[in-house]
TrEMBL record:
<protein>
    <recommendedName>
        <fullName>Thiamine-phosphate synthase</fullName>
        <ecNumber>2.5.1.3</ecNumber>
    </recommendedName>
</protein>
<feature type="binding site">
    <location>
        <position position="150"/>
    </location>
    <ligand>
        <name>2-[(2R,5Z)-2-carboxy-4-methylthiazol-5(2H)-ylidene]ethyl phosphate</name>
    </ligand>
</feature>
<dbReference type="GO" id="GO:0005737">
    <property type="term" value="C:cytoplasm"/>
</dbReference>
<keyword id="KW-0460">Magnesium</keyword>
<feature type="binding site">
    <location>
        <position position="74"/>
    </location>
    <ligand>
        <name>Mg(2+)</name>
    </ligand>
</feature>
<feature type="binding site">
    <location>
        <position position="54"/>
    </location>
    <ligand>
        <name>4-amino-2-methyl-5-(diphosphooxymethyl)pyrimidine</name>
    </ligand>
</feature>
<keyword id="KW-0784">Thiamine biosynthesis</keyword>
<feature type="binding site">
    <location>
        <begin position="120"/>
        <end position="122"/>
    </location>
    <ligand>
        <name>2-[(2R,5Z)-2-carboxy-4-methylthiazol-5(2H)-ylidene]ethyl phosphate</name>
    </ligand>
</feature>
<feature type="binding site">
    <location>
        <begin position="22"/>
        <end position="26"/>
    </location>
    <ligand>
        <name>4-amino-2-methyl-5-(diphosphooxymethyl)pyrimidine</name>
    </ligand>
</feature>
<keyword id="KW-0808">Transferase</keyword>
<comment type="similarity">
    <text>Belongs to the thiamine-phosphate synthase family.</text>
</comment>
<keyword id="KW-0479">Metal-binding</keyword>
<comment type="pathway">
    <text>Cofactor biosynthesis; thiamine diphosphate biosynthesis; thiamine phosphate from 4-amino-2-methyl-5-diphosphomethylpyrimidine and 4-methyl-5-(2-phosphoethyl)-thiazole: step 1/1.</text>
</comment>
<dbReference type="GO" id="GO:0009229">
    <property type="term" value="P:thiamine diphosphate biosynthetic process"/>
</dbReference>
<dbReference type="InterPro" id="IPR034291">
    <property type="entry name" value="TMP_synthase"/>
</dbReference>
<feature type="binding site">
    <location>
        <position position="93"/>
    </location>
    <ligand>
        <name>4-amino-2-methyl-5-(diphosphooxymethyl)pyrimidine</name>
    </ligand>
</feature>
<dbReference type="InterPro" id="IPR022998">
    <property type="entry name" value="ThiamineP_synth_TenI"/>
</dbReference>
Length: 197
């Protein structure tokens, strides 16, 4: 996505009061990624919204982002917690595994991300997770449960009904012409929205 679109859409959802913004850009050159992350951090500071960097602990540390989200192949959560300190946010991908979530909680993760629950263009090959997993995780762990993968305005109510604390969305908002209108269609009864860009 061109930078001007990225920043304008990010500002729209920040103005709307999302709970967190996660920067996820897998194929950008390091300099471009750093520049965009810094610009997003500036925007997030204006709206008092945390910025989490996806899969790049060093970038999160370098720009002093509010935290990092690590997948299973992105390094040690224990090491990340040590480097981040206790005041920064550490999120962990748990796919459809309560065992991975248990390990992440022990390693100091602040939230546990499960999914994909629905077909997803962002994570098309991720293992599918059953909706019941959300309630099981909610009952077992003392961490917020974030639900990822194909979440849109038509199915968000289902994940909240199972106990999700947050939802992470990408294409449902950033793939639209008007993210503000798309955001208004979401079923957000009580949970903040984590936006991945």
């Amino acid at each position: 996505m061109p930078g001007d679109q990225l920043f304008s859409k990010a500002e729209i959802v920040l103005k709307a009061g999302i709970g967190c913004l996660q920067y996820r850009e897998k194929n950008a050159a390091p300099d471009q990624k750093k520049q965009r992350a810094q610009q997003l951090l500036t925007l997030c500071r204006q709206y008092n919204t945390p910025l989490i960097i996806n899969d790049d602990l060093e970038l999160a540390l370098e720009i002093d982002a509010d935290g990092v989200h690590l997948g299973q192949s992105d390094g040690s959560l224990t090491d990340a917690r040590h480097k981040l300190g206790e005041d920064k946010i550490l999120g962990a991908t748990c796919h459809a595994s309560l065992d991975l979530a248990e390990q992440a909680q022990r390693a100091g993760a602040d939230y546990l991300a499960f999914g994909r629950f629905f077909p997803s263009t962002t994570k098309p090959n991720a293992p599918a997770a059953p909706l019941e997993l959300i309630a099981q995780a909610k009952a077992r762990f003392q961490r917020p449960i974030v639900v990822i993968g194909g979440i849109d305005s038509d199915n968000s109510g289902q994940v909240f009904d199972q106990g999700a604390d947050m939802i992470a969305v990408v294409n449902s908002l950033f793939g639209t012409h008007d993210p503000s209108e798309a955001l208004n269609r979401f079923c957000l009864p009580r949970a903040p929205l984590q936006i991945n860009v």
